[in-house]
Amino acid sequence: MIPMVLRRAGARRYPLLAVGLLAALALPWLVYPPVAMDIVTWALFAAAVDLLLGYTGLLSFGHAAFWGSAAYASGLIAVHSGLPFPVAVFGGAAVAAALAVPIGALSVRSRGIYFAMVTLAFAQMVYFVANQWRGLTGGENGLQGIPRELWGLDLSDPFVFYYAGLPIVVFGLFCLWRVVHSPFGHVLVAIRDNPARARALGYPVERYKLLAFVLSAALSGLAGGLFAISHGFVSLQEVYWTTSGKAVMMVVLGGIGTLWGSALGAALVVQLEDYLSTAGFDGIGIVTGTVFVLVVLLFRQGIWGTARDLAARRSAARRSAAGTSAALRPPPAPPPVTGPAQRSDVDEPAATTLPQ
């Protein structure tokens, strides 16, 4: 029999997935389609970072290396091969995963701030290579003129391209959701909470960390490649360390270890930046930084995490109140005594006749 807790969690989980899918389908009707594409790609990037930060306990400031390298790789594949853009995007994700293997193998041996600094150092190395290899990346001029090819279909309309690229984002988010709710994801949470105990139970901690690092990098590359195809341009900004910081900020704003919070944080940051840039305001970083500080001070678990904890406390309070009222309710009255003509459901034993 399935425990009541698991059934209750499943009853909440699947309607929430349906609501999220409907929101993604309606997004280009609510905001400008290029902004909608930026929201979903950054949501996938932030969720991939959250897999490492929220579920494995590793803070990375180097994920711009995977986002940016996949963006360059996807752009180069699309420019020089003429293949459909999904092939270019997944090719960029493969490049990001391949790059993550040596970086992760050297980084996962560190912990805490040392892990963050090592990943930042590797990201700056990738930035230096992208800046100096001008013949391939364009250097400061960037990689321009990236086409959107899909078997002869016209994808020049951003509204049409949004629905062409959305299945890739949904696929990436589904992979993250499946990993988090799998036994592998539970082992990652155990490693985050107590790596010594997980190692004592026989789990190869460094191997699990490396696998989580590569998965996170591959899905970050999936988002970066789609972002490059959407904009038709890749700049050095994509491999700069501020891109990693922006993704971490989205995760913290929404709520670390929630996945849904990453999407919410991405929507808030991208919408705020678009609104401020459209209004002609130059100090975008000041406003986003102020919002980040306020959310950290007022919502320690992030926006989504705080709302989830508040709903859980209210639900527990209602169940406790219902249990208390049931305990204080007087017991039911005993059934009335039946007469000789009335018989109970249970047959009475036959009378025994004693001999005279």
Topology, please?
Elements: H1 4-30, H2 33-53, H3 64-81, H4 85-107, H5 113-132, H6 134-137, E1 143-144, H7 158-180, H8 183-193, H9 195-200, H10 205-231, E2 233-234, H11 241-254, H12 260-278, H13 284-298, H14 302-328
Antiparallel strand pairs: 1-2
Helix pairs in contact: 1-2, 1-7, 2-7, 2-10, 2-11, 2-12, 3-4, 3-5, 3-10, 4-5, 4-10, 7-10, 8-10, 11-12, 11-14, 12-14
Membrane topology: Multi-pass membrane protein
GO molecular function: branched-chain amino acid transmembrane transporter activity
InterPro entries: ABC_transp_permease (IPR001851), LivM-like (IPR043428)
Could you provide a short overview of the structure?
The chain is an all-alpha fold. The chain is built from 14 helices and 2 strands. It is globular, with a radius of gyration of 28 Å.
Multimeric status of the protein:
single chain
- The end-to-end distance, rounded to whole angstroms, is 60 Å
Proportion in β-strands:
under 5%
Portion in helices: over 70%
Question: Which radius of gyration do the C-alpha atoms yield?
Answer: 28 Å
- Strand arrangement, major sheet: 1-2
Poorly predicted ranges (pLDDT <50, ≥5 residues)?
Answer: 1-10, 339-356
Count the beta strands: 2
Secondary-structure element pattern, one letter each: HHHHHHEHHHHEHHHH
Mean pLDDT: 84
- Summed up, the helix count is 14
Structural class: mainly alpha
Largest sheet, in brief, is: 2 strands, antiparallel
Pfam families: BPD_transp_2
Organism: Krasilnikovia cinnamomea
Membrane topology: Multi-pass membrane protein
Subcellular location: Cell membrane
